[in-house]
Design brief:
Keywords: Oxidoreductase. This protein has 9 helices and 7 strands, in the order E-H-E-H-E-H-E-H-E-H-H-E-H-H-H-E. With about 250 residues, the chain is of the alpha/beta class. The protein has one domain: Rossmann fold. Helix 1 links the parallel strand 1 and strand 2. Helix 1 packs across helix 9 and helix 3 runs parallel beside helix 4. The longest helix is centred in the middle third of the chain and has 29 residues.
Length: about 250
């Protein structure tokens, strides 16, 4: 782990027990970073961390809990001595039409995605401002650009993450802290593979590249934004969607 695009740095990735979050954590670790894997599911995140090897810290955390987020940041700094990269990826879905969606399901999705990202940005940036450097990567979605039927909660939250990213980037740029976002499209994860096969195939057919993406392809974009290769980028939103909405 002595070489790589983020060698010697410390990263924290939320929603890291599976899917895109785990792929990002694995990619950062492979490229030399010490990585804290953070997830609500403590057992699963410990299993995921064990597979990665040394230089990994598994932590259970509810990203909607302000105290828990602040405590998690402190634990990472106590273990690794710094926080250089923060990836806010944790998310859930509670899909339903406008007519059938409950207020509780709307609140749950917005709280995890948008409030959780805001709490993560706030806590990480407080540390990074003092250090005079750092990269924050927020995971949005192409659903936040186009909107999806049955996902008014999810699409609204993911659109909000873009606004949050740009606002935070403007506040933090003069402190040497960069804030960028990634908007994945249809990515092959447990969540999307639970979709009815005909719906999945229909969405895949709308993609110019004619296939769903893989979590590792999202991780590559996150790695780029976390590394010095993107040193003059902040407030940017990278689409990883096979050209779906170009």
């Amino acid at each position: 782990m002595s070489t790589g695009l983020v060698a010697g740095r410390t990263a924290l990735v939320t929603g890291a027990a599976q899917g895109i979050g785990l792929a990002i954590a694995r990619c950062l670790h492979h490229n030399g970073a010490k990585v804290a894997l953070v997830d609500l599911d403590g057992d699963r995140v410990r299993e995921a961390a064990a597979d990665l090897g040394t230089g990994v810290l598994p932590l259970a955390c509810d990203v909607t809990d302000e105290h828990a987020v602040d405590t998690t940041i402190r634990q990472v700094i106590e273990e690794f001595g710094a926080l250089d990269i923060q990836v806010n990826n944790a998310g859930i879905t509670r899909d339903a039409s406008l007519r059938k969606m409950t207020a509780a399901d709307f609140d749950a999705v917005v709280n995890v995605h948008l409030k959780g990202t805001w709490l993560g940005v706030r806590a990480a940036s407080a540390v990074m401002r003092e250090a005079g450097r750092g990269s924050i990567v927020n995971i949005s979605s192409l659903s936040g650009k186009s909107g999806n039927p049955g996902q008014t909660n999810y699409s609204a939250a993911k659109a909000g993450i873009v606004g949050l990213t740009k606002s935070a980037a403007k506040e933090l740029a003069h402190k040497g802290v960069r804030v960028n976002a990634v908007q994945p499209g249809l990515i092959r994860t447990a969540m999307t593979e639970a979709m009815p096969p005909e719906i999945f195939a229909e969405r895949e057919a709308d993609i110019p590249m004619k296939r769903a993406g893989e979590p590792a392809e999202v991780a590559g974009a996150a790695l780029f934004l976390a590394s010095n290769l993107s040193s003059y980028m902040t407030g940017a939103v990278l689409e990883v969607g096979g050209g779906r909405f170009m």
